Amino acid sequence: MAPEIAVVVASHDRPLRLRWLLEALADQTLARDRFEVVVAHDSSGAETDQLLEDHALARAGTLRHVRRAPGSSPPGAHSSSRAKPAPSMCRSVAVTSAASRHDLDRPASPPGERT
Asked: Which residue in 81, 14, 68 sits closest to 41, CA to CA?
């Protein structure tokens, strides 16, 4: 079954904040087969790659990542826009940064309404 929700994360050289975000997502009560996490990053150190390979979400098949060349994204650009889930695979897509936290169990707002 395809996931219903994709959480797309842009990250740059902040492995600790990325770990916090991944831990918060791993702690969700929503079943892991109902969401996926896609991380796009251009981090220069190996710590981010190691985190993304070894995290429990990666081992469960819920996390995938796209690595770009270090410094290849201009400041403020969200490289996650290039790491979109396959069309029609997910009903909802949430784009965030490694410094954000989301509650996936909360119902989505209607289009145009902010929560």
From this structure: 68
0.70 exceeded by the pTM?
no
Residues 6+ apart with CB under 8 A from 8: 38, 40, 80, 83, 84, 85, 93, 94, 95, 96
Q: Which residues contact 47 (CB under 8 A, 6 or more apart)?
A: 15
The predicted pLDDT at position 74 comes to 58
State the chain's mean pLDDT as an integer: 76
Q: Which residues of 21-42 are buried (b: 16+ CB within 10 A; e: fewer)?
A: bbeebeebeeebebbbbbbbbb
**Is residue 77 predicted with pLDDT exceeding 80?**
no
